Amino acid sequence: MQQIINFLIRYKTFLLYLFLLLISLVFTFQSHSYHQSKFLNSSNFITGSIYSFSDNITSYFNLREENNSLVEENKRLRDKLFNNVQLSGITIDTASVDYEVIRGRVINNSYADQRNYVTINKGQNDSIAQDMGVITDKGILGIVENTSANFSTVQSILSKKSNINAKIKNSNHFGSLVWGNTQDYNIVQLIDIPRLVPLTIGDTIVTGAMSSIFPENIPIGTIKRFDLDNSKSFYFIDVELFNDMTNIGNVYIIKNLNRKEVLQLEAETEANDQ
Amino acid sequence: MINSTFFFNVLRFILLVLVQVLVFNNLNFFGYINPLVYILFLYWYPIKQNRTTFIVLCFLLGLFVDIFSDTLAINAAATVTIAYLRPTIMRFVFGVNYEFQSFKLNNSTKAQQFTFLALLIIIHHLAYFTLEIFSFSNSLLILQKTFTVGISTLILCILFSTLFSSKKE
């Protein structure tokens, strides 16, 4: 017993080091699985407040740009409205609404890591929950991962873990949107598109209908380059994003009101299968 | 005396975390270079202090940077590693000299200070990017990032340590 205690005292620094290293490794590896660590994320009160304080100052520098992009979006929406006259006469029945949109602001953004996260200034108090889609006026941004009372972190599409259902516009050929080349923050990859699909450089890629997170037909980007993958039966497509991932201000969070029902149905089907 | 050292270290801790997460994490020089200047805490920390406290402090330093930048606990792991290795590195760089009471970082030569800082940065960045990328097929990428980000960290750390040098003459 005496010897064990002596040993512990002699090597206490080393043991402390091992212990702390182990803690950090556990934190790191447990979140290599699907969801980010519950404790170590920037959606908590302290980091959220500091980031929104800093955003309060820096957001003034690109107000003009921000305004232009909002006016541009308004113009697009008005174009749609005026060319769709019968719509204005119908009052929208709230019971038949599928999606609810909540607006938010990015207060911290990263794009140089392997798994990038964006922090936004809306949280549980604004009815944000895990697995809601986040888009900008130009295209998709990511999926909500953790929430606190007033802030949330969003797993950006620039993440090794990201995997989003996407398709080629005006067709129903869908594949998975991933981020393979983690060096380039303007390019993501679309995989699993069969080789029989006719492709042209410049084709638009939009979100697919298979996702219970994003509505269909939200723009993602255009085809920059495509090639067959190793199996020679699927395409490997480089998609240039519409979003400038380095410069994001206002975002919209999409709440799919049917998501619970869809997931429940899918789970039941799977359970019956076995 | 002890109080003022303690106070300075706490202040340094907070300022370094804030500078790291608010300024240097948003630098994105050439698209991906974000210097990790908070390592200066380990460079500046007094030598004659309790080693256990030092390691725990460094762990917390890394953890705070992690929480802000959503990097899981990679910074904490890398920082606690160099905190543990610091005495070994110092013995390597300064020889047995550093164990004497009179030894001060400012008394050593510029070359020694530079080597000390460079070794801290290399080991930290190697651990950091190995954990971040975490695949041996990308070992070239790990080395490339360690080198490029390490150089930028080194330059900024030297600038900072000259700017805030405790010897004002």
UniProtKB/TrEMBL annotation, chain A:
UniProt signal peptide: none
Span of domain Rod shape-determining protein MreC beta-barrel core: 106-255
Keyword Transmembrane belongs to the record: no
Record-linked Pfam families: MreC
UniProt xrefs under InterPro entries: Cell/Rod_1, Cell/Rod_MreC_2, MreC, MreC_beta-barrel_core
GO terms under biological process: regulation of cell shape
GO cellular component, one term: plasma membrane
Gene3D superfamilies: Rod shape-determining protein MreC, domain 1, Rod shape-determining protein MreC, domain 2
Keywords from the UniProt entry: Cell shape
Protein family membership: Belongs to the MreC family.
Name of the featured protein: Cell shape-determining protein MreC
Lineage: Bacteria, Pseudomonadati, Bacteroidota, Flavobacteriia, Flavobacteriales
TrEMBL record, chain B:
Keyword Transmembrane part of the UniProt annotation: yes
GO cellular component: plasma membrane
Domain of life: Bacteria
Compartments (UniProt record): Cell membrane
Lipid bilayer topology: Multi-pass membrane protein
Keywords of the record: Cell membrane, Cell shape, Membrane, Transmembrane, Transmembrane helix
Annotated transmembrane regions: 6-24, 29-47, 53-85, 114-136, 142-164
Primary localisation category: membrane
Keyword Transmembrane helix: yes
Any one GO biological process: regulation of cell shape
Family that this chain belongs to: Belongs to the MreD family.
Descriptive protein name: Rod shape-determining protein MreD
Top-level taxonomy: Bacteria, Pseudomonadati, Bacteroidota, Flavobacteriia, Flavobacteriales
